[in-house]
Design a protein that fits this description.
31% of the residues lie in helices and 22% in strands. It has 466 residues and is an alpha/beta fold. α1 packs parallel to α13, α2 packs across α3 and α3 packs across α13. It binds flavin-adenine dinucleotide.
């Protein structure tokens, strides 16, 4: 074990999409960059299993920045400056990814990064999308003379007079490394794998949700930023999807199939057979509600034959629910009557009948918005035979963390930038969360904040260079 000190223009902590973009962009612009990752190789985090869809808050990436901005603000928890920066740079960041060699398929509504990939069947994800994104970014980073160290965990930021001047780290042999830098970028992912932080910020039992994101996301960046008095926001919100309860014990049911069309056509009830949240906004807000419950799995998705048929072509799920769930015994129940279905599911039968009765009456009059729990989209009536399935929220990543400004500089509790400290990707708070879910897209968040952090870090570290 020996201790060492290194000097660099820019140090980036975390080598996922956000860190690789930040490091590559700073290196491309001429900075000397050192990238540290605690994993056994770069990209060992959420980027590894990403599906690669370049989501931009549910509208096309080519939409006017004003529209992208309005969409990001719709959740009700986004910071206006950050949302505006994200909206202005979504297209530029996608172009830059293409420029450094990431393959982009622009044919659909949502661009797909590294589209040619096989599907792993348990857990269910697109095998090559994440690994190819990382491979290409890493090749570009190295072509720009970027240096990286894996199995090296950053422990704390070095700060003096309110300025961050580097980071202290430790490698797998226990040797300490002090990195002195002109600028530091935190890109360490969220805190979805830290049970204590989930319980503290998201819900008393939120750690019993299925973990669908990387186990490397232990909240290190959040802690390091908090230690230098960063302002942290939106810690209670998570990017979580609803998957079959079977996913708790069977890898074939997470992170896909997800149930976008089934939620559009169906409804979600609690153990009393009652709706509790507007399914029209999709599963992210529902999963956020459940994460606050004592038992996060006491929710059931109810739908009918027509919905089940439509879900064969659910475009948002890597494997469509139909026939995946029925072929693989995914916890799906079917019955001719609601009372029979309720018995099979273990839900209150009378409650479920009343809920569907009221729902159907409102759907017929196109008055779903007037229900006790209003429904945002215009769903049809639900008719037998009926289907039902118990759900579990699966956490992909947390949405909160240190707030950054339009230059991706972390701000302090008085909203002043902390000199020398940038943040990018899942670690950042301020772009996502809120009543309607507020998910804008993890890749676009990582690409935009990574690009801007790389540019700002290079500029700060090489202040004398124009
Ligand atoms: C199954 C799945 C599917 C997804 N699909 C999509 C999709 O289709 N579209 C979309 O927009 N988003 C998607 N996402 C989300 C998206 O992939 C992420 O938002 C994005 O990859 C986050 O990148 P990141 O660099 O911020 O974090 P990560 O990729 O998690 O990287 C963080 C890195 O930091 C390292 N690290 C952590 N702590 C330290 C420390 N103390 N010192 C050194 N290194 C550290 C970790 O080892 C890791 O390599 C998906 C996520 C998952 C899990």
């Amino acid at each position: 074990m020996s201790d060492a000190t290194r000097k660099t223009d820019v140090v980036v902590v975390g080598g996922g999409l956000a860190g690789l973009v930040a490091g590559s962009r700073a290196a491309e612009l001429g900075a000397q960059v050192l990238l540290l990752d605690k994993g056994s190789f770069l990209g060992d985090g959420n980027t590894q299993t990403t599906t690669g869809a370049y989501y931009t808050a549910g509208v096309r990436v080519s939409s006017a920045p004003g529209e992208l901005y309005a969409r990001a603000m719709r959740g009700g928890a986004a910071n206006a400056e950050l949302a505006s920066t994200w909206a202005d740079n979504c297209s530029r960041a996608l172009d830059w990814l293409e420029h450094v060699g990431v393959e982009v398929d622009n044919h659909g509504d949502v661009p797909l990064l590294e589209p040619k990939s096989a599907v792993s069947t348990g857990p269910v994800y697109r095998v090559d999308a994440g690994t190819n994104i990382i491979k290409k970014l890493r090749a570009f980073y190295e072509s720009q003379n970027g240096v990286s160290m894996s199995k090296t965990r950053a422990l704390k930021l070095i700060a003096s007079d309110g300025r961050v001047t580097g980071v202290e780290a430790q490698d797998s042999t226990g040797a300490r490394l002090t990195v002195r830098s002109g600028a530091t970028v935190l890109a360490t992912g969220g805190f979805q794998a830290n049970r204590e932080l989930l319980r503290k910020h998201v819900g008393k039992h939120a750690d019993s949700c299925k973990l669908m994101g990387s186990s490397s996301a232990t909240g290190d960046g959040l802690k390091m930023a908090t230690d230098v008095r960063a302002k942290v926001v939106n810690l209670r919100y998570i990017y979580a999807r609803l998957v079959s309860y079977k996913a708790v014990s069977d890898d074939r049911f997470w992170p896909y199939p997800t149930f976008e069309t089934l939620l559009e056509d169906g409804l979600v009830v609690d153990g009393k057979g009652r709706r509790f949240s507007d399914e029209g906004w999709g599963d992210v807000p529902l999963a956020n509600v459940l994460a606050g419950w004592d038992d996060v799995t006491r929710a059931w998705l109810i739908f009918d034959e027509a919905a089940w048929e439509r879900s064969r072509t659910d475009p948002s799920s890597v494997v469509p629910p139909n026939p995946w769930l029925s072929e693989k015994d995914g916890g799906l129940f079917k019955a001719d009557s609601l009372s029979d279905l309720a018995r099979k599911l273990g839900v209150d039968g009378r409650g479920l009948e009343q809920t569907v009765e009221r729902f159907n009456a409102a759907a017929l009059r196109r008055r779903l918005g007037e229900l006790e729990v209003p429904r945002f989209n215009n769903a049809r009536q639900i008719r037998g035979p009926y289907y039902g399935m118990r759900l579990v929220p699966g956490i992909v990543s947390t949405m909160g963390g240190p707030l950054v400004n339009k230059r991706a500089l972390v701000v302090d509790r008085n909203d002043r930038p902390i000199p020398g400290l940038f943040a990018a990707g899942d670690v950042v708070g301020g772009l996502m969360g809120g009543r309607t879910g507020g998910y804008v897209g993890g890749i676009s968040q990582a690409a935009v904040t990574g690009l801007i952090a790389g540019e700002g870090a290079r500029k700060l570290a090489m202040a004398s260079i124009p």
